[in-house]
Design a protein that fits this description.
By secondary structure, the protein is mostly helical. The chain contains 10 helices and 5 strands; from the N terminus they run H-H-H-H-H-H-E-H-E-E-H-H-E-E-H. A 3-stranded antiparallel beta sheet has the order 3-5-4, sandwiched between helices. A two-stranded parallel sheet has the order 1-2. Strand 4 and strand 5 form a beta hairpin. Helix 9 packs antiparallel against helix 10.
């Protein structure tokens, strides 16, 4: 794209100073990370924000159902651990806990992710102007993999029901596989999820909502880190068994 003379004047006028973005960005990163402001006032503020988040999640019944589904399907697995904790856990956190966690963080392996049109040697050169000895390990890697390879043996399906006074039922069904984002069949699993329920022309939408008029909403979500497909539906309580039966039938057909 070539700027017109008028556009170029606006651009030059907007950026009044010549700034070394890389230098300033890394300086800001190190300053905020290595000089944290741990105070009781900030801690209580963050606690209030986090407790409000948990309350909002509970009030949003779709989000709450998704959270409960995750709790049940991935019970005993890393996937089940929320970085937000629980509402009751928030008040238990002390300032000493924060400082301990911060010190543990400083001694952990460090990764830096950079997105944009910039050469890695420019980043590394600027980083080397700082004292990196406080980090346990500092290294550059071309490729990182974050894959949960844990395989859970499923003997039988586990059904869990939570009852609340709401207008519609929210149903989740989970299917697991050994496929992960670093395995050859990852694109096949993506295609399967799309075929089942990610679009308006997908099978579950067409059959259960359009043909039988049994769902306010229905679709699938793909969890590639676990090789899992989640089927979700917002339905009437009277239609739970029928919708479950139709979902199973369409999957069997595929």
């Amino acid at each position: 794209y070539e700027f017109s003379e008028e556009e170029y004047k606006i651009l030059v006028d907007y950026i009044k100073e010549k700034i070394d973005i890389i230098k300033e960005s890394i300086s800001c990163l190190f300053d905020s990370f290595l000089n944290p402001n741990f105070t009781l006032e900030n801690l209580e503020l963050e606690k209030d924000i986090l407790k409000q988040f948990h309350q909002n999640t509970y009030n949003n019944k779709t989000k709450y159902a998704a959270m409960r589904f995750t709790n049940e399907m991935y019970s005993g697995e890393i996937q089940n651990i929320s970085s937000y904790g629980t509402y009751d856990q928030v008040d238990l956190v002390t300032l000493d806990d924060i400082v301990d966690a911060y010190n543990m963080l400083l001694n952990s392996k460090c990764y830096m992710f950079v997105t944009g049109d910039i050469k890695s040697d420019v980043i590394v050169s600027e980083l080397n102007n700082y004292d990196l000895s406080r980090f346990n390990k500092y290294e550059f890697e071309e490729k990182l993999e974050f894959v949960d390879s844990f395989k859970k043996e499923i003997v039988s399906a586990n059904k869990q029901v939570d009852e609340q006074d709401i207008n519609q039922t929210i149903m989740f069904i989970g299917y697991r596989s050994d496929i992960r984002r670093n395995t050859p069949h990852r694109f096949t699993l993506m295609f399967l999820s799309a075929l089942l329920g990610e679009y308006f022309h997908s099978v579950l939408f067409q059959v259960i909502r359009e043909e039988h008029n049994l769902a306010y909403a229905i679709g699938t979500q793909l969890n590639m880190d676990k090789g899992a497909i989640h089927v979700y539906a917002k339905i009437s309580e009277d239609n739970i068994e029928l919708v479950e039966k139709l979902v199973m039938e369409e999957i069997e057909k595929i």
